[in-house]
Amino acid sequence: MLSDPVPKIARRTALVVLGTAASAAALGVSSASADGNSSRKPVPHVDEKALASRAPEVRNFAGVAASLMSVDAFVARYIHQYVDVDGAYGAQCWDLWERYARDVVGVSNISTQYSPNPGYAIGIWDGYAVNGAAPYFDKVSATATPQKGDVAIWKWGAYNHEWSHIAIVMEDQGGNVLVFEQNGYPLRSCELQPNIKTGLAGYLRPKNLNQELFTLSQFEELRTWHGQTHEKLNNANAKIDALKADVQANDSLTHHKINALAALVLQIADAVNAGTTVNPTLIAAARNKLGAP
Q: Which of 45-59, 114-128, 241-255, 271-285 is predicted least confidently?
């Protein structure tokens, strides 16, 4: 039997061993680790000490919202590749999870040490309350319907995943879940593959992906309201313009009346000063300008 440097998760059945022995050997993985039924506990999914010894830009990461990737962009970036973040044990399921946490959620180095099985994917679930996951993820029951972008975690000793497993949910398929995973079955690179829900511990739902500002119906309602608001503003502007024109017209008319009245008053004043009888027509015209009876 080959050495056991990169065992990661339990495989489905003994048939998997026969079907994947050649590919496992090519990757430096024993057939015992490929089927997940080895009597020996495999090496961990992550070496956190090795990660801590790596360059600061590798071990420390602070996600910037503006630079985070969408789930689809993340899949497009890593599909068919092998990802090894900690530089230990080869391309494990944990490595893809770590990349996802960094690239999509904006967090890194969530510890697996707060668990009866430190160093394995299940440790992320077991230590949720204290390992740094809680501020970034909501814990969702295994019986709930998963959403795209959720992180599925299988229990220690689960069917097909004896040493636990972690993967990114792409689609719920009833009894199965389509996931983006590494070190999965039948392909061990980062691939989209269906996985049975049996043995799930639950899901971690990224909070930044779960903050939907508007539903489609709310968006349509907002757009309608926005359009109505513009219509009302346009109508209001039209009324204001009409009122402005009316005021200007009345203002001109008022000035005309005042000027005409002033001329009549001057004629009356001249007649009075001259000691002549004021023409009744002038007085009637003045009264008319003033709107008097």
A: 45-59
Whether 204 contacts 151, CB under 8 Å: yes
Three-state SS string over 210-221 comes to CCCCCCHHHHHH
Task: Give me 57's structure tokens.
Answer: 């830009």
> How would you class 150 by CB atoms within 10 Å of its CB: exposed for 0-12, middle for 13-18, buried for 19 or more?
buried
Specify the 3-state DSSP secondary structure of 171: strand
Cis peptide before 186 (omega within 30 of 0): yes
Residue 282, C-beta contacts closer than 8 angstroms, at least 6 positions apart: 264, 267, 268, 271
**If you write DSSP's letter for every residue of 246-267 in order, what string do you get?**
HHHHHHHHHHHHHHHHHHHHHH
Alpha carbon separation from 95 to 40, 51, 132, 211, 270 (Å, rounded): 22, 11, 17, 26, 107
Least confident of 81-85, 143-147, 270-274: 270-274
What's the start-to-end Cα distance of the chain, in Å? 123
Answer whether 141's CB lies under 8 Å from 93's CB. no
Residue 36: the pLDDT is: 41
78 C-beta neighbours (distance < 10 Å), count: 22
Sheet holding 151-158, edge to edge: 137-141, 200-206, 151-158, 161-173, 176-181, 191-196
Q: Are 109 and 133 in contact (CB under 8 A)?
A: no
Of 90, 95, 91, the C-alpha closest to 58 is 95
List the structure tokens of 93: 């399921």
Residue 184 to residue 242: CA distance in whole angstroms: 72
Is it the case that residue 101 has pLDDT exceeding 90? Answer: yes
Looking up tokens 């180095």 gives 109
Structure tokens given for 278: 């004021």
